Each structure stands twice: as C-alpha cells, then as structure tokens.
Amino acid sequence: MDESVYVAQPQIERVRHELKRRVLTVAKTTRLTPHMIRITLKGEDLSDFVSLSPDDHVKIFVDDGEGDVAMRDYTPRRFDTDARTLELDFALHDAGPATRWALNAVEGSKLTVGGPKGSGLVQGVKRWLLIGDETALPAIGRRLEEAPPEMSFTVIVAVPHKEDEQDLQSKAQVDVKWIHRAECQSREAAPFLDVLGQVELSPQTFAWVAAEAGVVKTIRRHLVEDLGHKEAWLKASGYWTAGRAE
C-alpha cells in the first residue's frame, strides 16, 4: 500500500447506528478454551445488524438471579447478516449473571441483544500495538481477522494458562506475545509492563489497550509518561473493574 495514505495523526470517525433490540436464539455453543465460550446466535432480527469496528460492543440482557435484568457489554466477534448469525465470546473469569447465562446456554436458549450504538473507525494507521487480557481477545481476534496484509501488529495478551491461548488468524503481519498469569493476578499491570519493555514502539504505531480498569490506567500512564507515546495514537479502555461483577 502507498505509505502516503497514512497520516501524521490518525483520524477516528464516529458512526452512529440505529439503536435496536434483537431477540435471538442460541444455535451453537463452543468451548474455545478452558476460560472462553463462544455462543453462536441466530435470528431474522440480524438481517440489518451493523458493526463497523472490531471493538464495537453490543449490550446483552440476562437474568441477574434476583428477578431483575442485568446488562453487560460484549464484542460482536463475528457476524453474517446473510446467514443471520452473530458470535459472542464469553470470558469465564467470574460468576456474574452473563457468565452464568453462557455456561447454561443450550441450543434454543433465547438472548436479547441491543446495539451496537455506534462504531469508532480508526483511519490512517499501518502499525498497531494491541494489549489486553482474555476479555479483550474477541476484539483483538476480530481486528486481526479483518486486517489487510499490509498492516503489522504486535499483540500482548494475558490469559490464565497456556491452554487459554487462541489461534489468532490474520492476513497481516502479526507477532503475538502471550502472558500466562493466574486469575488472582488479573488486576496486576506488571506482567504487561515486563513484556512491553521488550517491544520496540515505532513512530506512528496505534496502541490499543483493554483489560481490568486499574491495569489499563497503569499501562496507559506508562505509555504516555514513560515511553512518550502520543495520546492521539492511543485508545485505552477498562473492559471490567476488579470487585464488580463482569
């Protein structure tokens, strides 16, 4: 690709979508790894489903176990409007209502899904640094799958065990660095910082970070204050907060 298409500062285009709730049916459940379940949903309501960015999120509505409804955000891992299917990956890192629903889901189970409300399209980026824990794997996996060959990625992912590693497919150039840490260490940033210290952060690299909120805050501060990474080339999101269910 012509390098001239890449800009001095990336542009993020915000695209709004019609907000809609869809009642879907479980078509299949797959245990990807010991700590990840993939739920394949189907339904005619998916005929107009739109998700333009790999880190979009939909909101699912499940029983909270106390007679009320709990809402949780999940990444559309993969979808096919022609086939009317949507795949959601559930990281099994606690016993919250969404995790309970995923563990008990069987073919024919119902799930109400809302959104996505919008998409943030990052443009003008060739090199990426993706950092996350198991909750970020759906967004990371989707971004790699959808990336063109001329892009390059350095990926740092923390999972509980080696068995939780996933086969991440991509046409792009990808270097994946796996971190194996116990679930009790999931709120510690040190394992990420240790590996990050071995990475050469080239200019015009977009850093994307998603994990426990406190971990993300520490990684973000290290990138900006210690490594001098420009904030315009960074997106950091707390995908969950220690002490709060999912």
Compose a concise summary of this entry.
The chain is an alpha/beta fold and 246 residues long.
Molecular structure report:
By secondary structure, the protein is an alpha/beta fold. The chain has helices at residues 97-104, 137-146, 190-196, 213-226; strands at 11-16, 21-33, 36-42, 58-63, 69-74, 76-80, 85-91, 110-114, 118-123, 127-133, 152-159, 173-180, 205-212, 234-240. The protein has four helices and 14 strands. A seven-stranded antiparallel sheet has the order 5-4-8-2-3-7-6. It is globular.
What keyword list fits this structure?
single chain; 246 residues; alpha/beta; Rossmann fold; Elongation Factor Tu (Ef-tu), domain 3; 2 domains; 7-stranded antiparallel beta sheet; 5-stranded parallel beta sheet; 4 helices; 14 strands; 16% helix; disordered N terminus
CATH class term of the largest domain: Alpha Beta
Mean pLDDT: 93
Structural class: alpha/beta
Topology as a string of helices (H) and strands (E): EEEEEEEHEEEHEEHEHE
Total DSSP E strands: 14
- Our measurement of the CA-to-CA distance between the termini, rounded to an integer number of angstroms, reads 40 Å
Number of domains: 2
Shape call: globular
How many helices does DSSP assign? Answer: 4
Unreliable runs = 1-6
Strand content: 35-45%
**Known CATH architecture of the largest domain:** 3-Layer(aba) Sandwich
Helix percentage: 10-25%
Q: The CATH topology of the largest domain is what?
A: Rossmann fold
